[in-house]
């Protein structure tokens, strides 16, 4: 008779995160990530709007990336001339702040944090940029963005997913808070993480679409949980191997993948802290500013 203990069942929430991760890899066109200053702008605008919590900036980044991809695909298939293509592209560039604000609005609506953020807040923000846009137009653009995304937005941000996974793994409430901070920083440097993945001969083949290798919500979330575990930030009497075993079971990711992600995230977060040493960290509330 076997004495091996059966693994605890996976909660419906974790199953939902895994399902959404599978959908993230179904895009026909590769998603071009926002980089550097563009990502920083998302965090700055989110802070000004008062919704820079629970992974909203990171999810807004993803929505904007998907929206721009959808618009680009539409341009390529519908434009009749090079001049028309350039004209429409200029129009997109001129409205990028508007698109971003709508993506932040959509991300905030999916988030568990409470907020009074709405279309009127966006209207005031756009006025600071010298743009008079009606609430009706903002609502219409929000719907346009949503429809361009196929009316599909992840139920959880990467921060929320990481916190749920940490809870299921059995980490302490203090550690769950640390994991949330790590995930926010990892999202801030997501473009750097993708670069490391593409350079890795170990991790690259583990992704289902290596030609368009990308990190998905589950990869980021599980990776930050693994970072906390491997780097002994959990402060628990239970051994790291026990936590990692639980993490593997919950996420269906290999030890190799989790170890690499932990090291990669630690590397980019350290770089982020070093780069921002003389600036205000992105994890802290920024003073409201009209500049992006």
UniProtKB/TrEMBL annotation:
One of its GO terms (cellular component) is site of double-strand break. This is Uncharacterized protein LOC113521370. GO terms for biological process: reciprocal meiotic recombination. It comes from Galleria mellonella.
């Amino acid at each position: 008779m076997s004495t091996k203990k059966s693994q605890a069942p996976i909660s419906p929430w974790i199953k939902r995160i895994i399902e959404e991760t599978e959908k993230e890899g179904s895009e026909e066109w590769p998603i071009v990530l926002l980089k550097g200053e563009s990502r920083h702008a998302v965090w700055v605008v989110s802070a000004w709007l008062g919704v820079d919590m629970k992974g909203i900036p990171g999810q807004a980044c993803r929505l904007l990336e998907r929206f721009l991809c959808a618009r680009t695909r539409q341009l390529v298939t519908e434009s009749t001339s090079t001049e028309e293509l350039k004209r429409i592209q200029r129009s997109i560039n001129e409205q990028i702040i508007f698109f971003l604000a709508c993506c932040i609005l959509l991300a905030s609506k999916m988030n568990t944090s409470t907020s009074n953020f709405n279309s009127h807040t966006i209207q005031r923000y756009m006025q600071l940029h010298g743009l008079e846009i009606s609430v009706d137009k903002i609502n219409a653009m929000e719907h346009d963005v949503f429809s361009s995304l196929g009316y599909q937005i992840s139920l959880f941000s990467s921060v929320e997913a990481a916190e749920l996974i940490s809870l299921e793994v059995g980490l302490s409430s203090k550690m769950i808070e640390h994991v949330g901070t790590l995930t926010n920083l990892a999202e801030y440097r997501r473009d750097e993480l993708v670069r490391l993945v593409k350079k890795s001969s170990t991790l690259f083949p583990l992704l289902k679409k290596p030609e368009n290798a990308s990190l998905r919500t589950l990869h980021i979330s599980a990776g930050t949980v693994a970072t906390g575990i491997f780097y002994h930030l959990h402060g628990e009497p239970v051994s790291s191997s026990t936590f990692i075993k639980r993490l593997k079971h919950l996420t269906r990711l290999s030890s190799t993948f989790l170890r690499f992600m932990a090291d990669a995230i630690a590397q980019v977060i350290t770089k982020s802290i070093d780069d921002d040493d003389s600036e205000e960290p992105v994890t802290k509330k920024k003073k409201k500013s009209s500049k992006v």
